[in-house]
Automatic annotation (TrEMBL):
SUPFAM superfamilies noted in UniProt: NAD(P)-binding Rossmann-fold domains
Organism: Ferrimonas sediminum
Molecular function GO terms recorded: oxidoreductase activity, acting on the CH-OH group of donors, NAD or NADP as acceptor
UniProt-listed Pfam families: adh_short
Superkingdom per UniProt: Bacteria
InterPro entries per UniProt: NAD(P)-bd_dom_sf, SDR_enzymes, SDR_fam
CDD domains in alphabetical order: carb_red_sniffer_like_SDR_c
Name of the featured protein: NAD(P)-dependent dehydrogenase, short-chain alcohol dehydrogenase family
């Protein structure tokens, strides 16, 4: 049977690479992004993978849309759910200049959205489904040796807490959950000095996902398979 994979933030960066590699592997892919009609790379992929790629509009800041996504799925069950979309928020802001609204959008997209999306979709997960949450080593409190980046760090630490609870709560239905650090990846967010390509990052994460079982559910794992400290 074909693997059914849903990916958020599928139009560029790491999400787009997840689409490419999942399609190459033969998955049926539901690629979610804000504006499918402007997602040129996805449109090209749809042409080269007829009947394998479905483009769905999804604004993660509007959780009411998650119900539409459930209705779109109907009776179909997801084998893989890749909660990839994320935002960084203010870069290089010094202590003294933070405002409450710096937190609001980032928390909404990096924390509230993946939590409510998994909550909405969990009845639509196949028995042995695997959920990947794209976190970051910036969310590791142990690893924080440089301070700053309050908003992004806090959002990914909160996502880690959510992923751990999801792993426990979804265990009875057979769903495994992993929190990924994708590496420092060459994307709009990672910048051109980043150390690895999306291709290398996603190849690693897909390998980890294939090996993932309930025993490893709820772990924080680097793209190369190494477990990370919270
Ligand atoms: P990019 O900035 O390249 O892409 C972000 C994606 O998220 C885009 O598809 C974007 O869509 C989507 N997105 C943002 N806001 C929304 C929204 N409100 N609704 C729907 N989609 C939205 O980031 P990366 O590919 O680099 O990052 C992917 C994930 O990996 C993120 O969660 C990030 O935090 C994490 N990560 C990345 C690292 C890196 O080095 N690159 C390092 C550690 C973690 P749109 O085009 O519409 O804006």
């Amino acid at each position: 049977m074909t693997t059914l994979t849903l990916i958020t933030g599928a139009n560029r960066g790491i999400g787009l690479e997840f689409c490419r590699q999942s399609l190459a592997h033969g998955d049926t892919v539901i690629a979610c992004c804000r504006q499918p009609e402007q997602a040129d790379a996805l449109q090209q992929l749809a042409l080269s993978h007829p009947n394998q790629l479905e483009l769905v509009a999804l604004e993660l800041g509007e959780p009411a849309q998650f119900d539409n996504l459930c209705a779109y799925l109907g009776e179909r069950k997801l084998d893989r759910l890749i909660c990839n979309a994320g935002v960084y928020g203010p870069k290089g802001l010094p202590l003294g200049e933070y405002q409450a609204d710096h937190f609001e959008q980032v928390m909404k997209i990096n924390v509230t959205a993946p939590m409510l999306l998994v909550q909405a979709l969990h009845p639509h997960l196949a028995g042995d489904a695997k959920v990947a949450l794209l976190s970051s080593k910036m969310g590791s409190i142990t690893d924080n040796g440089s301070g700053g980046s309050y908003v992004y760090r806090a959002s990914k630490a909160a996502l880690n807490a959510i992923g751990k609870s999801l792993a426990i709560d979804l265990q009875p239905q057979g769903t495994s959950v992993v929190l990924f650090h994708p590496g420092w990846v060459q994307t709009a967010m990672g910048g051109s000095n980043a150390l690895i390509t999306p291709e290398v990052s996603v190849r690693g994460m897909r390998h980890v996902l294939e090996q993932l079982s309930l025993i490893d559910s709820g772990k924080f794992i680097n793209y190369d398979g190494v477990e990370l400290p919270w």
